[in-house]
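It is worth pausing here to work through a concrete case rather than discussing structure prediction in the abstract. The textbook approach is simple: state the sequence, then state the predicted structure, then interpret. We follow exactly that order.
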Amino acid sequence: MDMQNKIKKYASIIKASYDRQIIEYNNRTINEMELKLPIKTIDNVKVTVKFRFHTSLCNLLISLYDIYENDAIDDHYIHDKSFNIGTDDYWAEKASKYIFLTLPKLKLSVNGQLKPEEEVKDELEQYELLTGLENVTLDYEECCVCNNVTGCKTHCDHSICYRCMTHIKNVKINEDGDEHIEKPCPLCRKDIQILNL
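Step two, the predicted structure:
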């Protein structure tokens, strides 16, 4: 199937999902209207991708995979795009085209957002130009795992990019019969609990 037919076919899937869910929503058999996409990674970063439908708006939301539960971190989106259902008859086609033509080209930026490649290159170039200025401290540091530039830190104040964060293996800890999961910091082995952004 060529790309144009894939885009049309997926647009019909998005539209059908919206039409079905809007009926269920109006009848109040569901509280939230969503379509989760079967995309696991973008630029080698583990993500959850979904459409969240409203009566007049369709939001494409990309979240980081939760580092513990393998689910979306809903309060931290690393990319979003809106399509206006109310005034645009071709919203589903535009959303489908965005999935097939734009998402594969997104790259992880220094500040942990998925952005077009040219914006990411500009950020890195800016960092390289400012590095080495006397008496100046930059927001960005090198990831302690891959040495790529990142603005993300763990609660223990170590720099680690999202890509590496999502690939650190969970460890089961058993303390006095209480079993829980931790994700150890690559430098100090403390449990990574939150990201300072």
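Step three, interpretation. The two ends are 42 Å apart (CA to CA). The helical segments are 3-26, 91-102, 117-130, 162-165.
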